[in-house]
């Protein structure tokens, strides 16, 4: 008997429900993952994220090989092509069961439905598992059995869910033990892999892809920073956030592993206790919330606003302003510094994500979808649910209880969270000679001397323009 484990956004050995189940059975276990580069590009992923996906697949192949679990890395181009290759694999390897962890985006769900139907025709068993959420989407609902649309009541219901009683429910599964591999299967696999050229591993100094490095990063964060997380998480000049979103987006870490570590650090509690720990737990629940929304409201996968009335907002189509934002030439230092961090590191501090998103959608009144796509291209932690949720929150088009006239002042945000202008000076060295206070918004005369652009928009007037545009669209 041969079980085929189909890896997708769960590129890890430990706490992998599909892999764990397959290894518990008395079967040969073979893994497969597909390089679907055309599909990834259609979904807007940039070259850095795509290369990191390839790097991780190669690393996983090596890690699984130590357990005598072969992993086939096959080129498919698109999801539909991957299904055709799976059909061939099932025949060549005489597969009796296929195991995979669910993905929640619309295209991925359609792919899995098509594949499951194919397996039914072939007489092959499909075993599907929940992996991306601790509590599966659809299981945290209101008393009327409808999806939550606002985070705070969702969080309250999530924390009260019966599945979270005791430690067992969020105890991560161990990595599989080493197995034996028959010579017959080895011969079959050689033929399968020989038909595909493996991708090149291109190291990225900022983003290691081993499972060991992911666990080390989690352990370091929990031991050294977690208890001060609430105090430090909004300060971009220091290393106060977990920076684990990259590992989560590729599935090198699971949300359950993160929640388990946090709960242990908080003496077995998910609520109350250390404020830094409970604050990070809340952020993990935000991640769950956005995935639950994606399933309950699939139009979110189709570039639709969560609040339908905001589709009537008359967004500006200023290519000049949009390009200035993309290139970090807005003349607002905290915005420009954040955009430089995005393109240098492939990552942006969470407080800065909110600042630059609100600047684009409110001060420049440019459609949130353009910013969402730009982030998706550049971010190494690109993730549809979190990226869409964050952008729609900032644009006041999403699942949020705050009114549309919430508009961050980027200069005030800069003064509050980068008080010494340390982050600005690091990212924009031309402003480093200035005093801390001047860095947040240099005087007009200084800008030409420093070769730093004038602000492209008046913050006060543009704020009112955004409020008027949302009011005219019938928001609120």
What does this structure look like?
- This protein has 22 helices and 5 strands.
- It has 476 residues and is α/β, with parallel strands linked by helices.
- It has 3 domains: 1-130, Rossmann fold, CATH 3.40.50.620; 132-172 and 213-296, Alpha Horseshoe (Serine Threonine Protein Phosphatase 5, Tetratricopeptide repeat), CATH 1.25.40; 308-472, Orthogonal Bundle (DNA Cyclobutane Dipyrimidine Photolyase, subunit A, domain 3).
- Strands 3-2-1-4-5 form a 5-stranded parallel beta sheet, with helices on both faces.
- β1, α1 (17-24) and β2 form a beta-alpha-beta unit.
- It is globular.
What brief labels describe this structure?
single chain; 476 residues; alpha/beta; Rossmann fold; Serine Threonine Protein Phosphatase 5, Tetratricopeptide repeat; DNA Cyclobutane Dipyrimidine Photolyase, subunit A, domain 3; 3 domains; five-stranded parallel sheet; 22 helices; 5 strands
